[in-house]
Amino acid sequence: MKKRLLLVVGIVVGVGLIIYAVLTAISPSIRLEFDFRHGAQGWEAGFAEYSPEMEDMMLEAGLKPLPSELGINGTGYYLKGMNRSDDLFMFLKRRLGPEDGVVPGQKYRLRFTIIFASNAPSGAVGIGGSLGEAVLLKAGGSPVEPEVYLDPDANYYVIDVDKGLGNDEKGGAAASVVGNIANGLSAEEVDLENPPYVSLTRQHTHEYTVTANPDGELWLVVGTDSGFEGLTGIYYQNITVTLTPVK
How far apart are CA 115 and CA 117, in angstroms? Predict the structure, then answer.
């Protein structure tokens, strides 16, 4: 009787594992597009890597009309900050879940197309680094929600996922480097007191795979890590991401 029971249990477990494996194997790719002319669509902003004692950070986040020089009507998701810490991380995050097609425990490869507007000209020398080349665009994902908290020992706002150290060119498991935000206009040919915005498109495959948590959730992360000790303002216009299952 015991052997028969063990056999039945073994068969049930085996069938369950086979079904899970089949579902995982045929889990389809997920493609999601977020055009910020249609609102925030679940994206939230955050700022990290600075001290609460730093004054006049000029932090700003939210939907805002796009600059007129772009010739595009509508809004973008605007992030702005004064990098007094020489390490300011300004980011957007968005939860994805089963309602988006995410499968619990599934490993995904993330591919991004990011359209954003930058007024940082190429080759412009600034304090600590150039206005464009020293500000890195990063993108990736995490099975846990990226949250900012105050480290009491360092008295510093930090983020709880690995986005890489400072504005290094390696990035981290939750946010790898896409490139920089230099817009291609020569610094010698623009008015640096009022530089124009240019719309840029960047494509990026996150260097790390991201595994959905047991609840079928993962969070997308897109942001800038700055080595330029000045004011940066960027408009995110559109973020498209494709999640491809990886065995």
Answer: 7
